[in-house]
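User: Hello, beginner here. Can you help me understand these amino acid letters and fold codes? It all follows right here:
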Amino acid sequence: MLTKKDEVLLINQPNKLLADYHARVMVKDAPESICTFYEANADKINGKVVIVRSKDDESAAALARNTLDKVLFVFSDTYWLTDYFKGVCQNIPLTAALLKRAIK
């Protein structure tokens, strides 16, 4: 279960990068609870939030990658991340402790 501190971190980390010079940032290997958190809080992110859980979500993600200025990609832990996205996105690392809480 995510703590309030985790939630603040999950909002502030991408916003800091999106406000600076990185147009595309990503969270990779996100458990379902983090994907759901970003869906529910997309309006708090300073850019478009694109959740990628499976191959079915790739076309929307590719469109965002190619057309939008500020994007937070959230790649699920069930999705195999391709170089197509890895090469153009700044990774936002999540701590092991946060991931452990998110999986509970």
User: Anything to note?
Assistant: Residues 19 and 46 are 7 Å apart (CA to CA). DSSP finds five helices and four strands in the chain. The chain has a mean pLDDT of 94. The longest helix spans residues 4-19.
